[in-house]
Design goal:
heterodimer; A: mainly alpha; disordered N terminus; B: 218 residues; Rossmann fold; 6-stranded mixed β-sheet; 4-stranded antiparallel β-sheet; 8 helices
Chain lengths: 250, 218
Amino acid sequence: MPDVLDGDRDPSAIGRIDPRVRIVAAVAFAVAVVSCRDPAALGLGLAAAGGLMLLARLPVLATLRQMIAMDLFVVFILVMLPFTMPGDPLFEVAGLPASRQGLTRAVEIALKANAVVLALLALVGSMSSVTLGHALYRLRVPENLVHLLLFTVRYIDVLHREYQRLRTAMTTRGFQPATTLHTLRSFGYLVGMMLVRALERSERILAAMTCRGFAGQFPLFDEFRLGGRDWLFGAGILGVCTLVVTVEAL
Amino acid sequence: MPPLIDVSGIHFGYPGRPPVLRGVDLQLFPGERLCLTGANGAGKSTLFHIVVGLLRPSQGRVVAFGRERGAEADFREVRRRAGLVFQDPDDQLFCPTVAEDVAFGPLNLGKSRAEAKAIVTEVLERLGLGHLRDRITHKLSGGEKRLVTLAAVLAMEPDVLLLDEPTNALDEPTTGRIVEILTGLPQAMIVISHDPHFRHEIATRTLRLESGVLFSPR
């Protein structure tokens, strides 16, 4: 199953920090980095994010691969920017001039995006989604959103297993996907069946909740406590943010 | 002794389909472990849903704990006092952790968080599930999920248990534990089961639902 269902990893230096502090730190870091434009400041931000990744003891290759997956989303904008932004021409491709300003902007965006994603992976990505839900709840994120997240986490695996059962049943009856109308129709049935089952399941869940006296309140138990280490870590991140912003201002 | 649950002349049909229940009469007395059997789709689960008011019969009376129940408000008390354990534990365990799921009922009954936590510990220990307390619900095994759903319902201190195929898809040791737990409980219960061996071990009385009516087999 996907990573979202993994539990908290072995406690690394970052894993031992209070999840709430990690979320707030990640947001503060993102705001600081996004507000900068100077390549030196952004480079410093990216380096700091890399340091966090090492502190979180994330597997380097796998993490960089996740980062590249994100880069694929922005790569088109990055490639287009030098050609679409007016400015001093730097070079030409097939008669289209690329501007220096556009290139700078593209580099800027690439640095920002990667620094933010890397910091997010290190600080927030290293906690389980259940912990994330609890921490968001304690940070007073609207309850409905937290429950939406936790319900998704709870049932993504159930739906996945349901999908696999249906898919196996199709395979055992000789189904092989091909570019035919039959394949399309069969996948249509599969998706339709998943939707119907999900709907029915949601009704059964609601019935089970009603039986236990559900009245709109969910219990969330957690034992988060802020210790000296958490404050120290928070102060450290704040220091890094200040440094990045100072380099930008100079 | 008056019956805890007394339904009479229940008729029910899902829209656009032939009626499933055509005049069901059922009484559950204190101390009884009443087993229900019957073909798939005979309406056994439907009957449970009618008893706790998730479905309303087209005809018939539902009397539970000495009072006739008709409106939604009447059934709130029934749901608290008659704990329904669903067939698929994944429908019932929706909280992220076991402790939160077991606490869900007690908190809905207005217990404080501290009280709810105490109930969680007590119920899990009683069923020998203390080690599952902080586990993530979707990562439990099938047998563990089943036992936790039972704990979640027992945490509400019901007077009656309604169990919908509690041994469905369980291995023998887990089935044995369910037998042990159920026969050790003071509550009266109605148990839907297709497993003759299991019924033989727990039942004090057995009824069969067929063609929309309940029979005493033989």
